[in-house]
């Protein structure tokens, strides 16, 4: 029976890898159709926020989303817990 457990583990690993690939492809599709300035805007926002709070590079997300007829700039910043990011 240990052989079957080994095969099941591979299937689970394969499904995890498949899900990760799906996420990467979805992210690539969303950024491919976006304006060229979004990556630079994200870098500049990160630099500005770092002047006041210590955050990681992945703490700032900038996306362009459709809201009916309008394009909306969606900016998300994950701030550290209180007391952790002052510096």
- Rg over CA atoms, rounded to whole Å, is 19 Å
Count of strand segments: 2
* Quaternary status: single chain
Based on secondary structure, the structural category is alpha+beta
Uncertain runs with pLDDT below 50, 5 residues or more? none
Order of helices and strands: HHEE
Mean pLDDT rating: 75
> Which strand order does the major sheet show?
1-2
Structural notes for this entry:
By secondary structure, this protein is of the alpha+beta class. The chain folds into two domains: 1-33; 37-87, no CATH class. Helix content is 51%, strand content 18%. The chain has two helices and two strands; from the N terminus they run H-H-E-E. It has helices at 2-32, 38-50; strands at 60-67, 70-77. It has a two-stranded antiparallel ribbon. A hairpin with a 2-residue loop joins strand 1 (60-67) and strand 2. The longest helix is centred in the N-terminal third of the chain and has 31 residues, at 2-32. The radius of gyration is 19 Å and the shape is extended. The relative contact order is 0.11. The mean pLDDT is 75.
Question: How would you describe this structure in keywords?
Answer:
87 residues, alpha+beta, two-stranded antiparallel ribbon, 2 helices, 51% helix
Brief synopsis:
One of its GO terms (molecular function) is identical protein binding. By secondary structure, the protein is α+β, with helices and mostly antiparallel strands.
Compile the SSE list and pairings.
Elements lengths: L1 H31 L5 H13 L9 E8 L2 E8 L10
Antiparallel strand pairs: 1-2
GO biological process, one term: regulation of division septum assembly
Keywords: Cell cycle, Cell division
GO molecular function, one term: identical protein binding
